[in-house]
Design a protein that fits this description.
- Residues 42-362 form the Amidohydrolase-related domain.
- One of its GO terms (biological process) is purine nucleobase catabolic process.
- The chain is an alpha/beta fold.
- The protein has helices at residues 64-73, 92-105, 124-131, 156-165, 190-201, 214-221, 232-235, 256-264, 281-285, 297-306, 312-327; strands at 2-10, 13-22, 25-30, 36-44, 46-51, 76-81, 109-112, 140-144, 170-173, 207-208, 226-229, 271-272, 343-346, 352-353, 372-373, 378-381, 384-388, 391-392.
- It has two domains: 2-42 and 338-392, Urease, subunit C, domain 1 (Roll), CATH 2.30.40.10; 45-327, Metal-dependent hydrolases (TIM Barrel).
- It has eleven helices and 18 strands.
- Helix 1 links the parallel strand 5 and strand 6.
- Helix 5 packs parallel to helix 6 (214-221).
- The longest helix is centred in the last third of the chain and has 16 residues, at 312-327.
- The chain is globular, with a radius of gyration of 20 Å.
Length: 403
């Protein structure tokens, strides 16, 4: 048994207390516990339910190894990888191949969604049953209502059929196909997202990925569906961040006013997820859509928290508690007895500017260059000290096997 002590966020308030850890889980939390003194604010390690770790035929952009290492340094203990890889993960064989890589190469707990494609729509329920004899699939999707690949673009009828056939969480990339004319804010108007969300809500309950408009956020918040927000949709906007090629992301950056409205939607948002979608610098010069962000999401939020822009309770709910609850990750989320001792320790006095050269993704660039952030000085994975003052203390594969 081990114990650490310090300031921690526990049941809605910051207290001075100790945490007893046994077999990777929190055994006891009490002000009388004396353990190794930890300097800084102890928060739960984060969960990022939307990453694209590439690998397979796109290893030059990112791998499970580099993506998970980047996540770890950003205070993230668990990721959900998306299946629109090359090849697409829409069958058991490819799914198992991917998980074998993760078990060997991931530094953190790694979960993987399965894709809904036009090729597997009539077999996906059977595929899920086969896969879940060995692995837990968090969700189906992200399901693309709009995609350049006809096999990946899914119609509303197919989504309705799947919704009626399974209780499993379905995550949706909501953009109305006929309203999308290309890349960028001018060719992917807010109405494309709003209309797609409206149509989906008529079909049932879903989890909506990377919502970028206030109107969509309000419509979803009035329903039984859930949604995530990516940091770039409330921190960046196309007016201030006009960088041809590099500014492309789907859904696109919105106006300055819309970004401010999205920040104001955080009180009703269910979670924040990075939509970590790395590309090489050369790809970005040619306009490939997507931003890296798994390492910077939590540090940006903590910096905003220090400035008083968002409360510590809201940060913890958005990046740990709600993702664990909605995606059914038992033992994750809040700092609580019985949960895994997944912890991120932030020194609020140590603010530094984000530099791409200091990050661990293969992307070699970040849309948040020179933004202020507070990175965790320590990260614990199931009670084991994994990162200590930028020093990596764990080996890949050692924490990649969720129960």
């Amino acid at each position: 048994m081990k114990a650490i002590s310090g300031k921690l966020f526990y049941r809605g308030e910051i207290i001075e207390a100790g945490i007893e850890i046994e077999d990777g889980r929190i055994k006891k939390i009490d002000k009388k516990i004396e353990g190794e003194k930890v300097e800084g604010l102890i928060l739960p390690a984060g969960i990022d339910v939307h990453v694209h770790f590439r690998d397979f035929d796109e290893r030059e952009k990112e791998t499970i190894e580099t993506g998970s290492l980047s996540a770890l340094y950003g205070g993230i203990c668990l990721v959900v990888d998306q299946p629109n890889t090359r090849p697409v993960i829409d069958n058991p064989e490819t799914y198992f191949k991917r998980m074998e890589i993760a078990e060997k190469d991931s530094y953190i707990d790694y979960f993987l969604n399965i894709a809904l494609t036009n090729s597997n729509a009539d077999r996906i329920i059977d595929y899920i049953k086969e896969i879940e004899e060995k692995y837990r699939i968090p969700a189906i999707g992200e399901v693309f209502l709009q995609h350049d690949d006809e096999n990946m673009q899914i119609g509303f009828d197919a989504i309705k059929t799947l919704r009626d056939a399974t209780s499993k969480l379905i995550t949706v990339h909501a953009e109305q196909p006929e309203l999308v004319k290309g890349l960028g804010h001018e060719l992917r108007p807010p109405e494309a997202e709003i209309k797609a969300v409206e149509n989906c809500l008529k079909l049932g309950n879903f989890h909506f990925c990377h919502i970028s408009t206030y109107d969509s956020a309000m419509k979803i918040s009035d329903s039984d569906s859930t949604f995530e927000v990516a940091p770039h949709h409330f921190i960046l906007n196309y007016e201030d961040y006009f960088k041809p090629g590099f500014m492309n992301v789907n859904p696109p950056l919105r106006s300055k006013v819309e970004a401010e409205l999205m920040f104001n939607s955080l009180p009703v948002a269910d979670m924040i997820a990075s939509d970590h979608a790395p590309h090489t610098i050369e790809d970005k010069k040619h306009g490939k859509p997507g931003f890296p962000g798994v390492e910077t999401t939590y540090p940006l939020l903590v910096s905003m928290m220090k400035k008083g822009l968002v409360s510590v309770r809201r940060v913890v709910d958005l990046i740990a508690v709600n993702p664990a609850r909605i995606f059914g990750f038992e033992g994750y989320g809040a700092i609580e007895v019985g949960n895994y001792a997944n912890l991120a320790v932030f020194n609020l006095k140590r603010v530094r500017k984000i530099k791409a050269e200091k990050l661990h993704t293969k992307a070699e660039w970040t849309p948040y260059e020179n933004f202020e952030a507070i990175f965790p000085e320590r990260v614990y994975l199931k009670g084991e000290l994994a990162v200590d003052n930028l020093e990596l203390l764990v080996e890949k594969g050692s924490n990649a096997n969720p129960d």
